[in-house]
Amino acid sequence: MVKLIIDCFGGDHSPMANIDGALSALASNHDISLILTGDAKIISDYLSGKEYDHSRLEIVDAPEVIGCDEKPTNAIRLKKDSSMIRAIRMLRDDDSIAGMVSTGSTGALVAASLTRIGRVPGVIRPAFCPILPTMTGGLVGVCDSGANMVVTADHLRQFAIMASLYMENVCGVQKPRVALLNVGKEAGKGDDVRQMAYKLLSETPEINFVGNMESRDLLSGDYNVVVADGFSGNVLLKTTEGTAVELMKKVKETIFSRTIYKIGALFMKKMFLDLRQLMNYHNHGGSVLLGTSKVVVKGHGSSNAVAVEKCIDQAYRMHVSSLSAKMEEIILKYEHYDA
User: Fold this and answer.
1) Residues 71, 48 share a domain
2) Band of the pLDDT at 246, cuts 50, 70, 90?
3) How sure is the predictor about 9, in pLDDT bands with cuts at 50, 70 and 90?
4) Paired strand residues for 249
5) Is the pLDDT of residue 253 over 70?
6) Do 148 and 161 touch, CB atoms closer than 8 A?
7) Same domain for 229 and 279?
8) End of a domain among 239, 257, 283?
9) Sheet of 208-213: strands edge to edge?
10) Number of H helices, E strands in the chain
11) Residues 276 and 339 in one domain
12) At residue 279, does pLDDT exceed 70?
């Protein structure tokens, strides 16, 4: 039985989406047990009358909530009874707990995870790796996407190793194609960090490095892992997501602008529904924090119950795949400066 903690407060639709997602996960996976942290009365009242396996669900009272506008260091220090910090402390102190899922403050989650949980031996900096669907029906992970604003070439190599192992062992992608985000595809492109990273990635046989990638090719299906610093990766991710959302809005607006377009859209309804499902981030879970000694999954702040259930499934699969041990084995082969 794999035990996981769900931080039930902090997201836009908390705690309802978090609790409903947890119940769905319990129903679909009989190999997990869950701990829900948050205001015990609110959680218990919401659970009242719902059917679930009581033996696999526990509630831990943590009445405080960390807001996304709070300074992470202050929140960690002052809100020890918050749902997030209580979950992280339990994850650190209880060896029987494999991981946690949160849709709360990203800054607080990263800071608390690094200071309270620690890293896989050899890992310099843990990194976020969200998953996006590609136009060919595959998946691509962006690592890093917000945890590390400034990086070295060593960091980028470790991101590539961790994300490649994640895509292969958790997402089922065989020999993930790894690319370095850059301003051009040629080997000599980019600043000194990118040029050195290109060299290091080329000399790392444990990954399938295929060269540089320009941002326009993220969803092409040619790549399964894109390695970047946290600033560039986050901009890439949000620009891509925002473009997809606005494009779908424009398509809808155009369809309703003329009667003939509406008639044509009726014949293409199934296609539009399939496309919307493909681009719906709720179906792809959250952003895993690769490199921490225990599993941490950060769901989008606006995650619904489906997205929370997917996050829980991600956490479960990361644990049963022994991902941390596989990262440690490869990363410790390479010398680096701990920075």
Assistant:
1) yes
2) confident
3) very high
4) none
5) yes
6) no
7) yes
8) 283
9) 131-133, 139-143, 225-227, 177-181, 208-213
10) 12, 12
11) no
12) no
Summarised one tens digit per residue, pLDDT across range 43-66 is 999 999 899 999 999 999 999 999
- Give the DSSP H or E segment for 128: strand 127-129
One-letter amino acid for residue 202 of the chain? S
Domain count, the chain: 2
Q: What is the pTM of this model?
A: 0.90
Give yes or no for a contact between 334 and 117, defined as CB atoms under 8 angstroms apart.
no
Considering only residues 283 and 57, tell me which one the structure prediction assigns the higher pLDDT. 57
Which is nearest to 163 in space by CA: 339, 318, 5, 320?
Answer: 318
135/260 same-domain check = yes
Residue reference for tokens 């639709």: 13
Provide the residue count of the chain: 339
In this predicted structure, the answer to whether residue 202 has a pLDDT above a threshold of 70 is yes
Are residues 134 and 119 both part of a single domain?
A: no
236 phi and psi angles, rounded to 5 deg? -60, -50
For residue 277, name the pLDDT band (cuts at 50, 70, 90).
low
Instruction: Round to whole Å and give the CA distance between 297 and 290.
Output: 9
The boundaries of the domain holding residue 229 are 129-283
Q: Are residues 61 and 90 in the same domain?
A: yes
Token couple for 54: 């009581």
Which own/partner pairs from 326-329 qualify as long-range (CB within 8 Å, at least 24 positions apart)? Answer: 326/165, 326/169, 327/120, 327/122, 327/123, 327/161, 327/162, 327/165, 327/290, 327/291, 328/120, 328/121, 328/122, 328/123
182 contacts: CB under 8 Å, gap ≥ 6: 189, 190, 194, 198, 212, 213, 214
- The CATH number of whichever domain residue 272 belongs to comes to 3.40.718.10
The helix or strand, by DSSP H or E, that contains position 131, with its residue range, turns out to be strand 131-133
Residue 228, by phi and psi: left (phi above 0), alpha (psi -120 to 50) or beta? beta
302 & 274 share domain: no
Q: Are residues 167 and 44 in the same domain?
A: no
Which ranges of 281-322 would DSSP assign to H, the alpha helix? 305-320
Which of these three, 261, 283, 305, is where a domain ends? Answer: 283
